Amino acid sequence: MKSKLSFFTLFTVFFIGSISAQKKIIKTDAEWKKILTPAQYQVLRKAGTEPAFSGKYDHFYKKGTYYCAACNTPLFTSKSKFDSGSGWPSFDNHIGNNVGFHEDDKYGITRTEIICNICDGHLGHMFMDGPKKTTGKRYCVNSLALKFKKSQ
Predict the structure, then answer these.
(1) Using an 8 Å Cβ cutoff, are 86 and 126 in contact?
(2) Residue 68 is among the residues annotated as catalytic for this protein
């Protein structure tokens, strides 16, 4: 019984791992440059940041879903969007496991970088100064990293 359970566990871990690996989108820099604008490439592939208050989704409040501009993965919904006053679109939650987290030590401070878990595109950073009534999190996202699709 023990060996069957171990085999089943290993098979399940392998199977689930292979599903995740199949979903990953990997492209060369040249391929990304062909499908992204230069500004999107700078943000998504080189971890750049658009100037505060310059993005089209900063004060944008239509109902719908925000997708990764590089790979079209759903990342945030309009229900989780709020006005943080920071100059970037802000959300208090993300969709499923589509957003990943990395420690970012650039500029002498430690922040939590947020990325698209499917294409590894840089989205922005997460801070713990969001709405206390919900998650307390603020996903501070570059508009250039997003595409919006209106709900029907």
Answers:
(1) no
(2) no
Using alpha carbons, select from 90, 68, 80 the residue that is nearest to residue 139.
90
**DSSP secondary structure letters along 24-80:** -----HHHHHHHS-HHHHHHHTT---PPTT-STTTT---SEEEEETTT--EEEEGGG
Closest C-alpha among 138, 135, 136 to residue 126: 138
- Tell if the pTM clears 0.90, that is, is over it: no
Structural domain for 75, as ranges: 25-150
Catalytic residue (choose from 68, 116, 119, 140): 140
Is residue 10 a part of any domain in this protein?
no
Under a CB-based contact definition with an 8 Å cutoff, are residues 66 and 124 in contact?
no
Bridge partners for 126 per DSSP: 112, 139
9 in a structural domain? no
Assigned domain for 5 exists: no
Q: What is the CATH number of the domain that holds 72?
A: 2.170.150.20
pLDDT of 17 reads: 41
- Pick 28 or 23 by higher pLDDT: 28
Q: Which two tokens stand for residue 68?
A: 């990764």
State how far the Cα of 12 lies from the Cα of 32, in Å rounded to an integer.
33
